[in-house]
Write a structure and sequence with these properties.
The chain is mainly alpha-helical and 199 residues long. It has one domain. A hairpin with a 4-residue loop joins strand 4 and strand 5. Helix 3 crosses helix 6 and helix 4 crosses helix 6. It starts with 5 loop residues before the first helix and ends in a 12-residue tail after the last strand.
């Protein structure tokens, strides 16, 4: 396989780690809540199980890191989709297909593309969603900072996501981690959940 193409593909995957917001106590049964939008624990579990199945692992395999990573993407996807809708950005199937074909060319084959994404905790069935996420983020960057370079456009998108997440008072269930606003990332679950309150 020609590994020289992998950095470009990895860079695309890296955008998934952009800002994800979270707080403390979403409604029961919700993995995350973004204003009036909720990501159910069932939806999160289904997404995680899709990855475990693709990896050939048992559905009951405990993987807190994969669960947190998947929730990161789901929350970010919701936030980016909201921003894209507000901005009138629509992604067509043609754009998705063209990006997938480019990935195939970069990696050498569709199977290799799927392998690379799976190593990042993304099931083959979820790749199109990642493509939509990236296309939306790229289009938002162009709208938010039309005369800036790609790095500045990315920063503008991060800022917009952060503002929106704060406006929506986005919350992530403590069972999946804690939101660290300083680094825009879901961190480890608090270790004091089972401790009695201080007197």
């Amino acid at each position: 396989m020609n590994t020289s193409h992998l950095p470009r593909l990895a860079a695309v995957i890296a955008v998934v780690t952009l800002a994800i917001a979270g707080c403390t106590s979403p409604t029961p049964g919700a993995a995350a809540v973004l204003g009036d939008t909720r990501i159910s624990e069932t939806a999160l579990t289904t997404s995680v199980q899709a990855v475990l199945t693709a990896q050939g692992k048992g559905l009951d395999s405990p993987d807190a890191a994969l669960t947190s990573q998947t929730l990161d993407r789901m929350v970010k996807s919701e936030l980016v989709d909201m921003l894209a809708t507000q901005a009138g950005i629509e992604i067509t199937q043609g754009q998705i297909d063209a990006q997938m074909t480019e990935y195939d060319t970069q990696a050498g084959s569709r199977a290799e593309v799927e392998k690379i994404f799976l190593e990042q905790g993304i099931a083959p069935s979820q790749i199109s969603g990642i493509i939509v996420l990236n296309l939306q983020a790229n289009a938002l960057g162009v709208q938010l900072a039309p005369n800036a370079d790609a790095a500045a456009q990315g920063q503008a998108v991060v800022k917009a996501i952060t503002v929106l997440s704060e406006l929506l008072e986005t919350e992530v269930s403590p069972r999946y981690g804690t939101w660290d606003a300083a680094i825009l990332q879901v961190g480890p679950a608090p270790d004091d959940l089972s401790s009695p309150p201080a007197e």
